[in-house]
Amino acid sequence: MSATTEHTTHRAPATPQPEFTALERAIINRLQYGLPLTRTPYQDVADELGVSESTLIQHLEALLAQGILTRFGPMFHAGEMGGGLTLAAMRIPDEAFQRVTEIVNRLPEVAHNYRREHDLNMWFVLATESPEGINEAIEQIETLTGYPVYNMPKEKEFHVHLHFEV
Amino acid sequence: MSTSTLKSDLLSERDRALIVATQAGLPLVSDPWAELGKQLDMPADEVLARFQKMQDNGVIRRVAAVPDHYRLGYQFNGMTVWDVCDDAIARLGDQVGCLPFVSHCYQRPRHLPYWSYNLFAMVHGISRDEVEHKAAQIREVLGDACSGHTILYSSAILKKTGLRLKKQSGRS
Q1: ipTM, 2 dp
Q2: Domain that holds residue A122
Q3: Does some domain include residue B161?
Q4: Which residues 68-127 in chain A show a CB within 8 A of chain B?
Q5: A47 falls within a domain
Q6: How far apart are CA A97 and CA B56, in angstroms?
Q7: CA pair distance A71, A76, nearest whole angstrom
Q8: Which of B124, B130, B157, B158 to mutate to test the interface with A (most CBs of A within 10 A)?
Q9: Which pLDDT score is estimated for A162?
Q10: CA A18 centroid distance within chain
Q11: What is the pTM of this model?
């Protein structure tokens, strides 16, 4: 388990629960539910939290700069955009893991890529502009890496509610 | 894929321009709509109206913060996968998806003989024990309809950029 690359941005840290101020907690919890699409969205959230708009924006900037938030913006749904979206997995020997990670991560179609503790040890999400793009990307990865890709597109979505309370 | 084609027609070039301009993030300024409008030569009202429409029709789930769950203390990200009887998966998948600690729940194809799991439920926790305790609750919901499961923990995030469109449209 030594393979890392420059793309390996995070390992699970050994530290216990992080310390956040009450305001940081409130911002992280509130903004995972979405910004209201109003003329003054930040002001409206700031009012809810009882702070000024500039305080909210400054904290948001800091949380992003520290990497506590990886992104703040629209969460697109590739399927609804007419594109393709899938989860795919590969079984990569340790000695090839870094090389394959670099090849896979280089593709703009790869939105997320996780190493997982399993025989199938690389799991990534592919998002393409057309449904056909998925098979093209998979063929490209298989050709470039020499390893098979297991395509596991969703057949049914039961629920998505990704919120982390802090 | 006729439904996909239809849906993509709903996404105009102006919507596309807004997506490309915000996929790295929404401007952190008092009036983000005006700021985007300035960049794209579009009235602020139109920017906002297009965002509202894209959210209404599901192209955008929401405009929101995406945390690094490790940094929030959720260090154990367990993809629990289950081999569920085909006849029961629709009913049971709904029940698993409704468990408050399941963040994503999908039915996906098996790849026999290597991969027999057809139900995926993502569970996060501050310890392996917590993830395993949650997995046990899923096991209880699935009952006799489940003939095997495992938990795949993530050991590294190799890439996390989110969905990105290229600047130029592939179609015209």
Answers
A1: 0.72
A2: 78-151
A3: no
A4: 68-83, 87, 89, 101, 104-105, 108, 110-118, 120, 122-124, 127
A5: yes
A6: 41
A7: 12
A8: B158
A9: 66
A10: 20
A11: 0.73
